[in-house]
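Table S2 (text version). Query chain:
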Amino acid sequence: MRIAIPHSIGKDEARRRVRERSGEIANFVPGFASVSTAWASDDKMNLTVGAMGQEMTGAIEVGESEVAFTVELPAALSFIEPMIRSQIEAKGRKLLS
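Corresponding C-alpha cell output:
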C-alpha cells in the first residue's frame, strides 16, 4: 500500500518535520504498535511496525512535493488496510503541518 501526502513546504522542511516527529508514527496504526525506524538515506526512512501480533515493514520517502508512505501488510492484517490508510492520510497531513 502506498499513500502519498502532497505538501508545498519543500523537501528540506518536509524532511525536518518527518525527522522531528518520527516518534508520532506509532499513532498511525490502530491499536497498540511498536515502531522502529532507520534512515536509509537523507530522504528515506525504513520502518518496522509491530501491531496485533504481526509485523509490517515500510518506508517513508520525502520528495519535493509529497511524502510517500509505503506499508507492506501481512495477509493476516489485510482487513485493516482501509483503517491504516485513513490514519496515515489524516495523521500524515498533521505530521507535515
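Notes on Table S2: The beta strands are 2-6, 33-41, 44-51, 54-62, 66-72. Helices lie at 11-20, 81-96.
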